[in-house]
Design goal:
heterodimer, A: mainly alpha, 2 domains, globular, B: mainly alpha, MetI-like fold, two-stranded antiparallel ribbon
């Protein structure tokens, strides 16, 4: 009697446990399926973005994009392509020396409270919305300093935006170089600049180049801080007075074309918006591949 | 003490970063000064943004010259910013957690770099391109399919009402675009952390008889919780300050608080871009000054968010180790 009771409890305990096991297994299966669906929901729209931009962009692709300007002056994107190149290159010219210099300081001499403070404020600047920087430039550069809506104000705004990125990535790259290499340089009697520029920088070059390329990608893709600093113009720079035109006239850029032309009612404007988006995407993609190649080339073990 | 010109030059370069930040805050503050006095604390709690009658002679109100009838209130934009970012987080967190877990555990190591590279690529896609996709694909989808479907089935709940009428522009479109933009931030942060969980912890959970999913959800996820929250807050900071993509799909709501997922909204950032043109028409400049005050509010909101993210992640390793031995 007592034996059979014990037996029945043990079997019932066993069935309870297997039901629990079943529940755990089913829960796990459902969990995995949910995770898989989540991945599909993340990847799907991303592929769709690439597809939509590539399909519409290539349909709108024609040689005139590269020699004709945006409507009403023409049927292409030349003014915007030129403007994007001018603004990005000027921003890089301003930002790279400052950003790399700051990165060197933070990595080589920044292990103190001052370095920590600069690092923290640099992160704050990185987190500042780009429109806030754009509004600052609109008030100070365009208004107060009287630069007007033109390439310099746009380029300096972008430079403020990318300097903190450059500084942090440069710092991280330089820190990868073993201290022993610096010590070896100093032991040979090298001065600080020699050690940094002849030993540390070459060793960290791929990292610094990565940072510069990413900064370039950011500057090509920005819109908000340029709208009220660079303005927009349907005319390319006046090449008979290039300096005057650069300093005083509003300038076009690709991201503005994407934003404003997609809201126009006609198909031609839409085609130009997608073509501009394709150019920007191709550029960003090329930079991304470039970064991967740069990173692969040199690595310290 | 020896003067080292080389070091000083580098220090001067690096001090330009704090100087730029200080200049941004200082000049916005100085420029917004008269607006700060005029708007008072009601700036945040008033609903109406009204430039006043720009063609009449300005009148002196509260000690400053403003167009008659001018009233600057930004509650609508603060609410629009917080709601769109909040909903974006609600959408993005489960998706990116699921995607990161699937990437780290199920996807074969050989395929993983391809998928994770695709996810990383999104981080550098310009926000106008997201906006473009939003206008071309998402807005028609919400306007024609998702909106009517949600309103027909769940329309008795106020937040799902009104999906049949709008063109798809509005709160939901803004939130979905933002969610897409921040998913890679959360997913890559979590993926990195999951890959760093020590093998021993996984194996001991397996040895206790846990299923693979239980190992992930009960043994690994608690270890990376802090990193995950840090990543979420970082993504929130990005979403709060996002301008162009939101501007393009949000419908530009003004002077009315959103009542449903399909209401048109404006965020603080998108409002600055869309309103500066009309604000320039104000001869007293008070509208442009009030926009500077808005920019300051946005700066403060993102500063608090990013500081929160920093506090959550700084000093902690990516993986929170429980045993004292490590």
């Amino acid at each position: 009697m007592s034996i059979s009771v014990a037996k029945s409890t043990s079997t019932s305990a066993k069935t309870v446990r297997s039901a629990q096991e079943l529940r755990r297994i089913v829960t796990s299966k459902i969990g995995w399926i949910a995770c898989g669906i989540a991945l599909l929901l993340v990847i799907g729209p991303l592929l769709d973005i690439v597809w939509v931009v590539a399909y519409n962009g290539f349909s709108a692709f024609r040689p005139s994009l590269f020699y004709s300007s945006t409507p009403p002056t023409g049927v292409g994107l030349w003014n915007a392509i030129e403007g994007t190149i001018v603004i990005s290159l000027c921003a890089m010219l301003v930002a790279v020396p400052i950003g790399v210099g700051a990165g060197i300081y933070l990595s080589e001499y920044g292990n103190n409270r001052l370095g920590g403070t600069i690092r923290f404020l640099s992160d704050v600047l990185t987190g500042t919305p780009s429109i806030v920087l754009g509004y600052f430039s609109y008030i100070v550069l365009v208004g107060l300093l009287g630069w007007g809506l033109a390439a310099p104000a746009g380029a300096v705004t972008i430079a403020i935006l990318i300097v903190p990125y450059l500084a942090r990535i440069t710092e991280l790259a330089l820190r990868q170089v073993p201290v022993a290499m610096r010590e070896a340089g100093f032991a040979l009697g090298a001065t600080e600049p020699t050690v940094i520029f002849k030993i540390v920088m070459p060793g960290a070059l791929s990292g610094v180049v990565t940072g510069a390329l990413l900064a370039l990608a950011i500057s090509v893709g920005e819109t908000a801080p340029l709208i009220y600093t660079a303005g927009f113009s349907a005319y390319p720079l006046d090449l008979s007075h290039p300096v005057h035109s650069f300093l005083t006239s509003q300038i076009g850029y690709l991201t503005y074309v994407i934003w404003s032309f997609i809201e126009q009612p006609d198909a031609q404007s839409h085609a130009l918006a997608f073509a501009a988006a394709l150019l920007v995407m191709l550029f960003v993609l090329a930079i991304n591949i470039g970064v991967r190649l740069a990173v692969r080339r040199t690595k310290f073990v | 003490m020896k003067i080292r010109p080389f070091r000083l030059a580098l220090l001067a370069l690096s001090l330009l970063i704090p100087a730029a930040l200080a200049a941004v805050v200082l000049f916005l503050l100085i420029y917004a000064g008269p607006a700060l006095g005029f708007n008072g604390f009601g700036f945040i709690s008033r609903i109406t943004w009204n430039l006043g009658d720009l063609y009449s002679d300005p009148v002196t109100t509260r000690g400053v010259l403003v167009p008659p009838g001018a009233s600057y209130g930004i509650l609508v934009f603060v609410v629009g910013t917080l709601l769109s970012s909040g909903i974006a987080i609600l959408i993005a967190v489960p998706l990116s957690v699921g995607a990161a877990i699937f990437l780290s555990e199920i996807v074969p190591p050989r395929v993983r770099p391809v998928l994770s590279m695709l996810v990383e690529l999104v981080a550098v896609v310009p926000s106008v391109v997201f906006g473009l996709w939003g206008i071309a694909v998402l807005v028609p989808f919400i306007g024609n399919i998702l909106g009517p479907a949600l309103s027909d089935t769940l329309g008795f709940i106020p937040i799902f009402a009104g999906g049949n009428s709008g063109g798809g522009y509005g709160l939901l479109a803004a939130a979905v675009v933002l969610a897409l933009m921040i998913t890679p931030i959360i997913a890559t942060t979590l993926l990195d952390a999951l890959m760093q969980v020590p093998k021993e912890n996984r194996e001991s959970a397996f040895a206790l008889g846990a299923t693979h999913f239980e190992v992930v959800s009960k043994a690994m996820m608690p270890m990376v919780r802090t990193t995950l929250i840090g990543g979420i807050v970082l993504a929130l900071g990005r979403a709060l300050g996002e301008t162009m993509a939101v501007l393009m799909v949000s419908g530009g709501g003004l002077n009315i608080l959103p009542s449903s997922l399909f209401s048109p909204i404006s965020t603080i950032a998108s409002f600055i871009v869309s309103q500066l043109d009309s604000a320039e028409g104000d001869p007293t400049n008070m509208a442009v000054r009030s926009l500077a005050e808005i920019a300051l509010v946005l700066f403060i909101i993102t500063l608090i968010t990013n500081a929160g993210a920093k506090l959550l992640t700084s000093g902690l390793p990516h993986v929170h180790l429980r045993s004292k031995k490590h």
